[in-house]
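wait is this the right file?? whatever heres the structure
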């Protein structure tokens, strides 16, 4: 399969997600929406991963390319293409399916508990994760669950995951991040961290187990995309 990796910044990329994609023999093609047109026609891709970014889903005036990405997300939903949105990618997916996306009462930066819903436990992708776990988060905005979507995970602050139809997933947390990525975010003066050294130490303790969960989640999504590709060929 050929999988499109949509990235919005130099330090917001696929992280550990690249490992299960390549281990299963698939090609990962990176693209930045701000750079212009897709490197290949959308029909050439079997699945899409949409990662995070420093911008917000409602900042089309500052980042006009967000309008084109919004249209792309709508098209992916229309095609029922396998897609997984992460953080900003999840918010863009929510926005494209009619849900509210906006600032939270307080940001989630660091490690926060969440819990799968009953639908999440049954889900072929999100259901591969533990019922309860602490997730790495870095976001100021959140989303509502889109009309008709299944909420798959949540915590006390906001919804954390949903599925639209049978092929589009969104997670607010960051299952893809490596230690190097997190430490780069902590050191970024343009996006200040409330407790940089505390978060650095906690992340160093937790990151190995977290990366295992990230690989598990990505592998489950790739398996779902493989099933969709096989069904399309049948």
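ok assuming it is, sequence goes like this
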């Amino acid at each position: 399969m050929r999988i499109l990796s949509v990235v919005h910044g130099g330090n917001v990329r696929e992280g550990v997600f690249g490992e299960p994609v390549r281990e299963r023999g698939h090609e990962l093609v990176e693209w930045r929406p701000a750079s212009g047109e897709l490197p290949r026609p959308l029909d050439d891709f079997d699945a899409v991963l949409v990662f995070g970014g420093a911008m917000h889903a409602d900042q089309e005036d500052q980042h006009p390319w967000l309008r084109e990405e919004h249209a792309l997300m709508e098209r992916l939903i229309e095609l029922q293409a396998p897609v997984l949105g992460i953080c900003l990618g999840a918010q863009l997916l929510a926005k494209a399916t009619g849900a509210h996306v906006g600032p939270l009462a307080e940001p989630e930066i660091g490690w926060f508990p969440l819990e799968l819903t009953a639908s999440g436990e049954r889900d072929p992708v999100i259901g591969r994760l533990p019922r309860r776990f602490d997730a790495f988060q870095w976001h100021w905005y959140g989303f509502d669950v889109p009309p008709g979507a299944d909420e798959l995970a949540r915590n006390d602050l906001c919804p954390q995951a949903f599925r639209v139809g049978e092929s589009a997933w969104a997670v607010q947390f960051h299952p893809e991040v490596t230690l190097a990525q997190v430490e780069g975010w902590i050191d970024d003066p343009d996006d200040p961290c409330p407790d940089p050294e505390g978060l650095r130490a906690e992340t160093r303790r937790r990151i190995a187990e977290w990366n295992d969960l990230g690989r598990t989640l990505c592998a489950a999504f790739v398996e779902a995309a493989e099933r969709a590709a096989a069904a399309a060929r049948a």
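The chain has a mean pLDDT of 96. so i think its the right one actually
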